[in-house]
Amino acid sequence: MSGDSLDLFDSGPARPPARRVLPGTPLADRMRPSSLDELVGQAHLVAPGAPLRALAESGRLPSLVLWGPPGSGKTTLARLLAAATDARFVAYSAVTVGVKEIREAVELAARERAGGRRTVLFLDEIHRFNRAQQDALLPHVESGTVTLIGATTENPSFEVNAALLSRCRVFTLRALTAEELALLVERALADGERGLGASGLALDPEAVAALVGLADGDARRALGLLETLAGLHPQPGAPLGPDAVREAAGRRVLAHDRDREAHYDVVSALIKSLRASDPDAALYWLARMLAAGEDPLFVARRLVIFAAEDVGNAEPAALGLATAAFLAVERIGMPEGRIPLGQAVTFLACAPKSNASYRGIEEALAAVERTGSLAVPLHLRNAPTPLLQALGYGRGYRYPHDEPDGFVPDPNLPPELADARFYEPRESGAEAAIAQRLAGWRARRRG
Predict the structure, then answer these.
(1) Are 102 and 130 spatial neighbours (Cβ–Cβ below 8 Å)?
(2) I need a labelling partner for 99 at 20 to 30 A (CA). Which of 52, 176, 194, 342 fits?
């Protein structure tokens, strides 16, 4: 059974007879629906007139990629689509299967096809297949020998080969809402054949709300936690409260990763909240990353970059404070490192913002790429020997500290870039004073 084996149901017509399940089958598997009408959630895909419902009813199921978070019903949906189109269903996990098993499945599918029956090849965690393994699927998908349904928690545009992706339709599943999860819990508690109805387990409304919150949009996690509660409280009694739920759940596990989409989404949320001068949101996203086990030095590095890129000279102290926070985290570690990180985040969020320095270096680099190695003006060149002095190196250079106001209006760019302006300070924070001074200097230099 693959990782996304949870099937979800909602209120509606009477269910078909319960299928036989083996002793010890997890509750999430026992509560598997038998039709699209029983599926909870994903109404945007399976409600009457929705895309997957229409495809199932047409009997012409194309190859698909189902992209969604854990416990959103990807495997369930694949099974139901195969059943709705009377196709043979073969399921593998990309973690454990190889090209040999896929080849055998394709050979059997070819024989079934000759007999008039199609095969749905379900590949869970398809992003775990490397390029060569994904390429091995191409001819069989293209020829129609198998209808491929891939499931992934990762963005398929990054994780699935473009050639394979072009032959599949991508559908996005959503995490279940609190109301949908509550419905699943209540149905499992009431169902005496497949669920926990015969156990007498009962939860009060606050306990249901606590369980739903801990499930974090994951239906499989919700039913797994419910089953744990049944094991901890085998004797029927008064409805359990939220404390019993929290005790059974243990420490909350957040949906996060170190190098995939969840990681980059939360990092992006932190940086954009800082840029929007929203310290409350920035602290929340910082807490999300730390609670999920993110490397605190990675966070600190991002704050140093932000201080230079997005605050810049509008608040010159920002870079020093962010760097100090990095050093503090590096030297004291966690959990105390959260304190300087929190200080840095709130300071950066509340600081005036300017990306003028960042834009300036980017435009200067573009000018170098465009113009190449322009000659250094003679008056700026080093003249350590008589020969170089005779060649005019350093001639005409004026030492600014010898000038009454410390400023020399002579040009310092190559003549080809005489009018170039890379740094345009903003009227923000301390950079406003810089802008005023620079405007005067540029006017004198032009004169």
Answers:
(1) no
(2) 52
3 state DSSP class of 174: coil
Q: Are 176 and 217 in contact (CB under 8 A)?
A: yes
- Identify the CA nearest to 52 among candidates 33, 23, 74, 34: 74
Give residue-wise pLDDT tens across range 92-123.
888 888 778 888 888 888 988 888 888 999 99
State how far the Cα of 201 lies from the Cα of 205, in Å rounded to an integer: 13
Tokens of 389: 């002095």
Cβ-contact 125, 95 below 8 angstroms: yes
Tell me the residue length of the chain.
Answer: 447
Strands of 50-118 (E only): list them.
64-67, 88-93
The upper half-sphere exposure of residue 55, i.e. CA atoms within 13 Å in the direction of its Cβ, equals 17
Cβ contacts of residue 192 below 8 Å, gap of 6+?
Answer: 198
For residues 279 and 287, is the Cβ–Cβ distance under 8 A?
Answer: no
171 forms bridges with which residues in the sheet? 66
User: By the 8 A CB rule, do 121 and 90 touch?
Assistant: yes
Per-residue pLDDT tens for 166-202? 889 999 999 999 999 999 999 999 988 888 888 888 9
User: Which residues 6+ apart lie within 8 Å of 96 measured at CB?
Assistant: none
For tokens 């349904």, the residue is: 149
Distances (CA, A) of 273 to 30, 212, 306: 43, 28, 11
Percent of the chain clearing pLDDT 90 (strictly above): 38
